[in-house]
Amino acid sequence: MTTTEMMTFKTEPFVLNFGPVHPSTHGVYRMRATLDGEVILDIEPVMGYLHRGIEKLAEERTYSGFIPLTDRLDYISPMSNNLAYCLAVEKLAGIKIPERGDYLRVIMAELQRLANHCVAVGSFLNDCGAYYTPFMHAFREREKIVDLFDMVCGQRLTYNYMRIGGVSQDVPDEFLPALKKLIGQFDRFIDEYERFLKQNEILLARTKGVGVLSKETAINCGISGPVARASGVSFDLRKVDPYSVYDRFQFDIPVGEAGDSYDRYRIRIEEMRQSLLIIAQAVKGIPGGPVRADVPHIVRPPKGEAYGHLEAPKGELGFYVVSDDSIAPYRCHIRPTSLINLTALREMVKGWKVADLIAIFGSIDITMGEVDR
Amino acid sequence: MTQPYPVKDLATTLAEQFPGAAEAAGDNCLLVRAASLLKVMAYLKGTAELDFAYLNYITAVDYYSYFEVVYQLTSLTHNHTIVVKTRCPGRNNLSVPSVTGMWQGADYQEREIYDLMGIGFKGHPNLKRLFLWDGFPGHPLRKDFQP
Fold this sequence. Notes:
The complex is a heterodimer.
Chain A: H1 3-7, E1 14-18, E2 30-36, E3 39-46, H2 54-58, H3 67-70, H4 78-93, H5 99-127, H6 133-153, E4 162-163, E5 166-167, H7 175-197, H8 201-207, H9 215-220, H10 225-230, H11 237-240, H12 261-285, E6 304-312, E7 315-323, E8 331-335, H13 337-341, H14 345-349, H15 354-364, H16 368-372
Antiparallel strand pairs in A: 1-2, 2-3, 4-5, 6-7, 7-8
Helix pairs in contact in A: 4-5, 5-6, 5-12, 5-15, 6-7, 7-12, 12-15
Chain B: E1 3-4, H1 7-17, E2 22-24, E3 29-32, H2 37-46, E4 54-62, E5 66-74, E6 80-89, E7 95-97, H3 106-117, E8 120-122
Parallel strand pairs in B: 1-6, 3-6, 7-8
Antiparallel strand pairs in B: 2-3, 4-5, 5-6
């Protein structure tokens, strides 16, 4: 074969299937990537492998009977899901929470953010090729938080701790001392993590300038949470629409500029530090008293509808609940953070290589339980 | 705090601009005729003092005699929010205009509603079922769905 003949060889795009069972798709996400060699031309997401019809199941349960199912949405951060749903129902029924209950909710939500970001950062670094060492370090710390949750509600994954009107039970006496100890340790862990990774050349090469999401696209796609903030959108519901007792605490909202994978990683690390500050303030200021308002087991909110939302670790998580004055929700829509955050993935990965696709996807931090519901 | 945007005056302004397109329904809710949805949405998004740039969510509710599609919009600059609803009567061949041209974030959410509620979105670039497979009988979130 002559050189001229070789030059006229045609190349054509081909389709590569990722998932649903693939170690880097964080569950059962599936995408069909169209490739030109190793360069991504387009991806087509295929979803629904974990669809359980949770919104439909809500219509057949009492208001409080639905709380355990919210645990199974974003199963990396069930406390936040519990809380978001309870906030919506409380708004609908006009229920006021005792102060101690609110403080406990904030402590749990922030602990959950720490635990979630440990998983997010750890598995993101895994996707970048730092196999299992950073992941295991982050999981070791998450384990301590899970132990605390275990102490509070006897569960390690599906907590079912929040109730309409407060929380299910007060924390045991040994909880607050254990929590104080954890706060001190956690700061040191973040420092250590940062020392290894902040200026790591391989991590910088893999993530700096990769998978850029512009501010305009982020807003237009409805993206929220650390992903939006890394792109410079200063939108955090704890600040712009404070719920529970968040307006009593001093903390900052870290905002990035570049909108690349590195910024998304950095924002999560900074958020962990802010969460520690919030928890420390909450532990200091927690009052005594009841943890749950006097709410009957069967709640019957008046006819109407309400949307309750909060800043979950992944972004804006909300529940749109419609009541027809019966004991079960007439309709319960879940605003899925993970699904909406995926909207821009196609744009973010176009032109990058297959290995970058995995890293960019990992930097968004999704849970399939919430995407498919 | 994110303030609910008072819709009373807004409804009057809209009635002058687009007669018969929208009316106030409650303190924070605008009920829009499906045919005028895109015009009203463009007004809400494009007017500087409203600036509803962020689409919180889209969902749909089945009320037997009609379906209600619910949009919630938030302005990140003014920190206020509004609920926009549109209704489509009947149970077959339902259709409302797609807002994907204005908010990319509507893409998956409209596909989800199409999949589970059976409401079509005219102008959606890729209106396919999102979670269930092609050929799945019926739309499970409808109140009269029989498995």
